[in-house]
DNA sequence: CGAATGGTTGACGCTTCTCAAACTACGTGG
DNA sequence: CCACGTAGTTTGAGAAGCGTCAACCATTCG
């Protein structure tokens, strides 16, 4: 346990300008690392000596219990940073679920840059705020939402762009097992819930990995626990 | 919604030295604010214009859904910062569960200090790393642990000091409802689980708010899902 | 073509939730 | 001092959602 899988990653770092936002300055030819799906970038307990910038592809972060139970704590795709919030050792395992392109920054140099560029520290801080917001939303989801509400929330979070608009359809880069371990469910329940949403006419499933949205409004209601059918009648006490 | 309860807090800020660690430099007489139990320090959706330093007491952070379902995302007690990870508006509601003493730092000045003192930025970053670690542990708890495992984990997290040692007994500052909303359970299940742990001889409950630990080893096994009785035989695949 | 992998569907059971009542502690007012 | 109301906790009985186990289907790859 705690093996240094990070050494799987070859290549080195020419210190490109840490493009936190997708589409930000990314000079052609800066040294990046291509990894295959299934590659473990770092494992829970590893020495956290690097910060990664995800250029493209999707990674999965997860923790495991001694008996094998797994919790996916997040998916990270293009344009985001990975491994900033790790003091000492890695908090969780990061694995590529699709082929991915990464840019590695040695932690020591990364932290020197933070000290040297005041604006950078605030930008990193803002990134971590986002991580924390996502984590809190996920806690609400895991602790208080039903299976349908979880899946609806999940699909909408994937469909949403930065402006809060939704795509008409999406492709799921991850497996049903990954989704289940992300939502605190089993694959069977995830599958059944997809089927239920399809039967209810909220989504279409041309194939297991692609989802078309047929009724975004009703999906949003489900995701937030908003309207339970007729649109009125919440629980007493609030509202 | 989003009312500015923060204005409940009077007093002002003489810029004491942001004591991130309990027991760090805290000049006598710096302006602090005393709040009663039940005081809402800030509410989800409020403008996040302040960072708070919790001097003493315990606060609860929580989010609510439109129908009233509630998820407590964390408890914050003496020596920790509150509200750093909020860009724009507050992510959740912060409420005192005990009488508390706070020190308020206007956000603008706080961020100027981050830019001015490079070391501070890293210390704040380290604080947020801890928040994120806690959040990830909580996701594992909420998504994958049973009721007993959740309660055992919760009790041990309260009993643990910075060195990883456990206290013999603790007083719970929060209600069963708060615990339930923190662990993704109902008050009834929390109560039943306490009773079960007592009947199994792992804890004693002189009164509802105080817990004595009678078998810390077995509690730890429960919390991690480690040994299920005989100490051997995990699931195949791992180990 | 056959095996392997991932996804879907079904039957059943268990953990936890829901609803309800009783008990305790505490403060109020007669 | 004691009856009373209130809020929090505990306990009980029944229901339901989701997990478990198992079989089946679809796709891919050798």
From TrEMBL, chains A, B:
PROSITE patterns assigned to the protein according to its UniProt record, in alphabetical order: CNMP_BINDING_3, HTH_CRP_1, HTH_CRP_2
Pfam family, one: cNMP_binding
Gene Ontology CC annotations of this record: cytosol
Domain HTH crp-type: start-end pairs: 145-217
GO molecular function, one term: DNA-binding transcription factor activity
Record PANTHER family: CRP FAMILY TRANSCRIPTIONAL REGULATORY PROTEIN (PTHR24567), FUMARATE AND NITRATE REDUCTION REGULATORY PROTEIN (PTHR24567:SF75)
Transmembrane region(s): none
Protein name per UniProt: Crp/Fnr family transcriptional regulator
InterPro entries documented for this protein: cNMP-bd_dom, cNMP-bd_dom_sf, Env_Response_Regulators, HTH_CRP, RmlC-like_jellyroll, Tscrpt_reg_HTH_Crp-type_CS, WH-like_DNA-bd_sf, WH_DNA-bd_sf
Residues in Cyclic nucleotide-binding domain copies: 37-83
UniProt entry keywords in alphabetical sequence: DNA-binding, Transcription, Transcription regulation
């Amino acid at each position: 346990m705690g093996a240094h899988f990070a050494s799987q990653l070859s290549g080195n770092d020419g210190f490109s300008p840490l493009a936190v936002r997708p589409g930000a300055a990314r000079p052609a030819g800066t040294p990046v690392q291509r990894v295959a799906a299934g590659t473990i970038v770092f494992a829970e307990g590893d020495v956290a000596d690097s910060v990664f910038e995800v250029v493209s592809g999707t990674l999965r972060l997860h923790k495991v219990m001694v008996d094998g139970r797994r919790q996916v704590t997040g998916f990270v795709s293009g344009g985001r940073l990975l491994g900033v919030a790790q003091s000492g050792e890695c908090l969780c395992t990061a694995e590529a679920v699709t082929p991915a392109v990464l840019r590695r920054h040695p932690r020591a140099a990364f932290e020197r840059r933070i000290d040297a560029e005041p604006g950078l520290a605030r930008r990193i801080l803002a990134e971590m705020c986002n991580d924390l917001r996502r984590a809190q939303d996920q806690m609400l989801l895991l602790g208080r939402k039903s299976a349908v509400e979880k899946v609806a929330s999940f699909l909408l979070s994937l469909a949403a762009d930065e402006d809060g608009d939704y795509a008409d359809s999406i492709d799921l880069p991850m497996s049903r097992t990954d989704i289940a371990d992300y939502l605190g469910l089993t694959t069977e329940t995830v599958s059944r819930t997809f089927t239920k949403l399809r039967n209810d006419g909220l989504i279409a499933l041309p194939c297991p990995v692609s989802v078309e949205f047929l009724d975004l409004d009703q999906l949003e209601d489900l995701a937030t626990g908003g309207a339970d059918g007729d649109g009125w009648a919440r629980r007493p006490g609030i509202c």
